[in-house]
Amino acid sequence: TDGDVHAGMEKVPADARFAAAVAAFAQTLRGDPYTNGYTLKDVLALAQPARGEDPFGLRAEFIQLVRAAEIAQPSGGAK
Length: 79
Known about the structure:
Layout: H1 14-30, H2 40-47, H3 58-72
């Protein structure tokens, strides 16, 4: 609905932004053509400010996983 449209990603609730980062991570790892050049660096940029409350450390662990995947890429780093 029109009520669900936001002016920019920073206006989207943090939980939705974090969920989008998780989905983008999976699609990026798969090499999905619909990511249109979205990189692991972009995933980090979306996930980090959306981390929010993380009482069990799972969101921090996800961010570390994305960093590890970024380093492990065949190109040798940030892509």
